[in-house]
Design brief:
16% of the residues lie in helices and 36% in strands. The protein is an alpha+beta fold.
Length: 122
């Protein structure tokens, strides 16, 4: 008996839904955490900061994020956002385990992106 009533109940729910949205079915947009976060500002930051080890510069604060270049050991760069770390994916690099990432620009190649905080010396 319950199965026979399920069909009409679904039809009524669909009619009510289209009536409330003006006759057009509307899909929900993804929630904010799924959207890409904006890159930190580089209007202020720390200059001439060297890398402890050679690390890949990535488009996101994730170990498997797309690599767009590298920050070579001893080479200097600019750390954006006044050097404030960004919480990202957990990593074990440069002798430390952390979730802190920095957004910066290499001085020699002008590559901009995320690097593990543990690998930058400041």
């Amino acid at each position: 008996m319950k199965l026979k009533l399920l069909g009409p109940a679904v039809a009524v729910a669909a009619l009510v839904g289209t009536t409330l949205t003006g006759g057009i079915a509307v899909a929900q947009t993804p929630s904010a955490p799924l959207a890409a976060a904006a890159a930190p500002t580089c209007l202020s930051g720390l200059s001439n900061v060297p890398a402890k080890e050679t690390v890949k510069v990535r488009t996101t604060a994730k170990v498997n994020g797309t690599a767009v270049g590298q920050w070579n050991k001893g080479r200097k760069g600019f750390v954006c956002n006044d050097g404030k770390p960004i919480t990202g994916q957990k990593y074990t690099l440069c002798g430390k385990t952390s979730t802190q990432w920095l957004y910066g620009v290499t001085n020699d190649t002008n590559v901009k992106g995320y690097v593990p905080r543990a690998c930058i010396d400041w």
